[in-house]
Queue: 2 jobs
Job 1
Amino acid sequence: MKLTILGSSSALPTSARNPSAHVLNVHERLFLIDCGEGTQMQMRRFRIRFGKINHIFISHIHGDHVFGLYGLISTFSLMGRQIPLHIYAPANYEKMFISHLNDFDIYPEFDIVFQPLEGKKIQTVLEDKHLTVKAFPLRHRIPSFGFLFREKEELRKIVREMIVKHNIPVSKIPGIKKGEDFVKDDGTVIRNEDLTIPPPKPRTYAYCSDTSYFSRLPSYLKEVDVLYHEATFGDDHAGLAPVTGHSTASEAARVAVAAGVKTLLIGHFSSRYKDAGVLLEQARKIFPETYIAEEGVSYNI
Amino acid sequence: MKLTILGSSSALPTSARNPSAHVLNVHERLFLIDCGEGTQMQMRRFRIRFGKINHIFISHIHGDHVFGLYGLISTFSLMGRQIPLHIYAPANYEKMFISHLNDFDIYPEFDIVFQPLEGKKIQTVLEDKHLTVKAFPLRHRIPSFGFLFREKEELRKIVREMIVKHNIPVSKIPGIKKGEDFVKDDGTVIRNEDLTIPPPKPRTYAYCSDTSYFSRLPSYLKEVDVLYHEATFGDDHAGLAPVTGHSTASEAARVAVAAGVKTLLIGHFSSRYKDAGVLLEQARKIFPETYIAEEGVSYNI
């Protein structure tokens, strides 16, 4: 898994930070998470391949998370895209979205498969052989969802020398990869752990923006390697966070501690903080493994 | 007058060119012409002052000319703007536009004064003491308008030494600035041209995007100093121009010749032209004073 930050500002972009957009690369398939204004230009800038994006996840229908979607769809269309595009977004968006495309004279030739997000529970919204994606409710001024991307456990890897040594027939290999022992013709049992090595641990990435702090949030984030959590405010404006449906850097860090994640990335900083270092410092006091989501930087998970 | 190019791509932005947006500075008042995706980020990049924009002109409702408007209005709102914003756009846009703002949860506190563009004739859409702005119909796939910004003729400038020499009373000065002669108490007539110097010639800027070539277009562009004209295609794709509602660089140049403008800027190049120099060369064969509209560059008119 590789995460690339395309935009990390809050609603008011700055000269250094574009509105929200993340790209997650899982086995060379790209998942776009939020799509603020200018996302397609950031994709060109950071050499993200347009043709590899088949799934777009929209956390909520505020402009700084969705204004870039129309231009991107127009571009897909002009590039001659044929394969379907899956969009996961709050349920009330589908009707608006179709109407907006018509208003802007955009009639894509490819199918857009809209998957509505709703409800108060965490739920699986995408599952294939490599990956499960879950959506969970956040607490914002309008319906808003976080996303959890978890690789599936791969099969065990068979040690090539052992195939030769024990003369293992091809027909037995799939079973061995799944954990079976190998029984020779003479009845000798070769234990699976002597034939295979375990697969790499599945990686998990979670995206939480925009949300105010609520006590159930960490329960959605178990065994997460990298958590991105919004940190709109510092402790100096802690009172504004619940009122506006946002979090402070300290609250983001408390979520990271409670969930037991490995690494915390913070972003979506209010433009009033010219130097995000202040927010980083406040978060690190609570959760030392905190980093600032920097535009154009890729993080291996 | 000073023109700054914020975006000069066609519908498919490239890594070097953003979608359409121009800023015209007339006596330190800024007029935004088209507002493609990313315009507000380009404004920050090129230090255009948000608070000085009170009038936005939208040529037509295709995304590459309008997707940036929503983010810009959201930003105006977050910056606490109070003064009214005037938007000039094709008539069918007003209803859509209001509905889009609501869909995106944007409820500005400042007034948005929408001025519908319609009809088949050139017409004055804004007039104040310094400037007249006219809109004229273009020929595109949907209703589309060009804009003509013309400074008003200033009063003649009185030569300070002459006031002293002829002992001209203050009450006579406004009349002299308008061209009157000065009659002394003894009946001597001092001719106006001996008292004043003429004002600078009024400057004119015209914006034409998107349009295919039509013979009436040059008649809208008389006495234009700088004409921006789209040049989506080169001669190699001349057949595509009328079909898609666009122009070739050669057609843009022919409009410049027929209208007798001083300088032609071309932009809105199809992304198929990696080097716009080819288009420049084709235009210059017909109209030598052609230049490429370069992002972030300002042109004094």
Job 2
Amino acid sequence: MNNPQLDKHGELQHLLTTEGLPAKILLNILDRASAFMGSADGGEIKKIPLLHGKSIFNIFFENSTRTRTTFEIAAKRLSADVVNLNVSSSSASKGETLLDTVDNLCAMHADMFVVRHSSSGAAHFIAKHVAPEVHVINAGDGRHAHPTQALLDMFTIRHYKKEFHNLRVAIIGDILHSRVARSQIHALTTLGVPEVRVIAPKTLLPTMVEHLGVQVHHNMAQGLRDVDVVLMLRLQNERMQGAALPSAQEYFKYYGLTKEKLALAKADAIVMHPGPMNRGVEIDSAVADGVQSVILPQVTFGIAVRMAVMSILAGK
Amino acid sequence: MNNPQLDKHGELQHLLTTEGLPAKILLNILDRASAFMGSADGGEIKKIPLLHGKSIFNIFFENSTRTRTTFEIAAKRLSADVVNLNVSSSSASKGETLLDTVDNLCAMHADMFVVRHSSSGAAHFIAKHVAPEVHVINAGDGRHAHPTQALLDMFTIRHYKKEFHNLRVAIIGDILHSRVARSQIHALTTLGVPEVRVIAPKTLLPTMVEHLGVQVHHNMAQGLRDVDVVLMLRLQNERMQGAALPSAQEYFKYYGLTKEKLALAKADAIVMHPGPMNRGVEIDSAVADGVQSVILPQVTFGIAVRMAVMSILAGK
Amino acid sequence: MNNPQLDKHGELQHLLTTEGLPAKILLNILDRASAFMGSADGGEIKKIPLLHGKSIFNIFFENSTRTRTTFEIAAKRLSADVVNLNVSSSSASKGETLLDTVDNLCAMHADMFVVRHSSSGAAHFIAKHVAPEVHVINAGDGRHAHPTQALLDMFTIRHYKKEFHNLRVAIIGDILHSRVARSQIHALTTLGVPEVRVIAPKTLLPTMVEHLGVQVHHNMAQGLRDVDVVLMLRLQNERMQGAALPSAQEYFKYYGLTKEKLALAKADAIVMHPGPMNRGVEIDSAVADGVQSVILPQVTFGIAVRMAVMSILAGK
């Protein structure tokens, strides 16, 4: 089967998932992002005319001001024209099919789509359908993938740890429903991280998650021991009303990241979170605001990584 | 009575309706749009600085992501600054009058308003009120007019049929409630189309529609015979709950465009639709996606036509 | 106590309130705005590249299309990139704290925040928290302050009256709930207006309002006598359902500005209103549209004043 993300020369045509992307492609994105960061210490991202005259459509079938904003800023820093479409309040409600909506936007000479959708596979579906000169970036589809989040996480890890091949990384929380976790696992294993652990209660783990190449832990004390990188996941509030979880308090007691639990990791371990955080649920404020937290640098790096992806796609 | 759309030199001051506009004005817009299309085969529309520094306000009292987007893209391709105002959620709800809202926007040095409103005549009302250097484009007012849609339809017809004077054109569907149909009829007759037919059940036809210069048909088999151009209208879902129509299924049976019915038209007839389509209601997918369909080129041409209108108005 | 709006050199770092700002700072903003107006007669505001490459975030926790639009236009005239965030529909609903939201936006390399919030003090709170190179403009916080509105009012007064030191100014309406009135009073007294009156029923006046340096009147006939400037306030519709006011009709009878009442002011008195107006409640249409009204010039001047504030902050 062809990789729908690569063209016949093996270059990136769409960014839909980190699954199946060669390490060379991932590293190329990280390197390009480094160039956009300017100095290595997180310097200023300047406005550059790389995408002048290009039209980028943010099509959000699922509302997300934060993610939409990071793509909007990245596109404007590249001098592109950005059109925001909140499709839930639009033609979809007039009975138009998804493909008709996409066809129409293509006919307006869109150069790139940034798509968020509640259905797994929506971005792939759109990517298969668009003209060859149009590029699709998946900004999150159902439980499936959120590749730019995983890439900015890889950028952050490389920024602080320099290498991937000697790391222990733990992903903690609702692995079952998390597109972020899936994309992180694929990126980490592709980039050569030898030990990726997931820590979660059984109700929040996919069946046969070991097949993704991870170690499974149900206990923070075991799972956090000697790790270099702690990747927290956001706990969706709606999960707590279901059968999966007893209560936010109990979750925090067993799986919330506190200073005490973090002390089990390596002394120089870094703590990451994709945001928005539920303080006091999955993470304690003392950790979120502590010296090991690199949660805000993640956001800054996220702009550079999205600029990198857009410029690589558009530069073809 | 003066034509409120023309200045004292007979040049376009506002675009409010195709009714009463001389053929010369209509053709000038189509010619300008052709220039923006670049090559004749639907090539790239480049970004040009014609409206740099101009402020264009999209004032949508009635929500329409699609139409708003096409105007936004057209304005950005002309390098204008675009401000989107969804007025229903704004001052209107604070009790401000329409004229006060418009006065305020004028005072912010708007150069052009693109207005959509559910009341027929709203764009005329605003155009009468603004300062002489401000231009108004009607993006749809009630059942009255939608001139840029009609103009992009004329552009599409000319693109595929070269001439207007030898054509038979059929407009099919809910003529009664359609501002698109009204604007199409005026444009077609002005441009010299000798035979314009409307095909609809009696409940969806305005009284004395013949006075607009059209032939009336209630039967697709008669109405479609030997036509060169088929203009489908969107069937508003809300109509189907009223007394005007029995059901979507029955409507489709009698007035939905299928391959069988389309075979009655000329072999090289083109099929158009303003979108969004109700597949299986007014049009069958086999026709919508068939070789005679020029529905997606319509969308591309629509950007060029809107750029043409904006640049003609601003260039005065 | 330090003034949180000024840096250690006494220059403007944030614009949060007119209270406590030296006259020199206020006049500097007005002078800069005059330069942006071009000619003295309200000429064109040209697009200038002063803020090219800067990112300005309009963060509106409280909806206001009009105010948001004026800031958006001002920022675009300065060539900044503008990102609009309607935060009520965003992360706030996902349980994120205000500080986390602000931290995240800072991490995206925002250069300036324009903040509207329903809580008094929100803009101060954010300003204390952001990095030293980020600037905050208060676009209205609860009942506390709305400094750009007061500054555009001062600009308007100076435009028509040339001087402040010889004026009588009356502020009329719901002083109690009005952030506009508070900001006007501080600006007027700082700029040397010798007589500032407030006219309102007792239920719409703050306790001990005299301590702000104003004369209190409950009667229009007394309060309007010989004033040079009449500053009307908007009556919030929701007040009229409470105990504070009997009815809109009765309010209009006693406190609505009519031609008859305005005749008590000086013959060349000017009438101002921050908009949107409730015609027939706080102001009669004959006055709103009359020769003494400068309500629409206020809007034009408002763009120049906001450009001035943004360019002074960014130019540091």
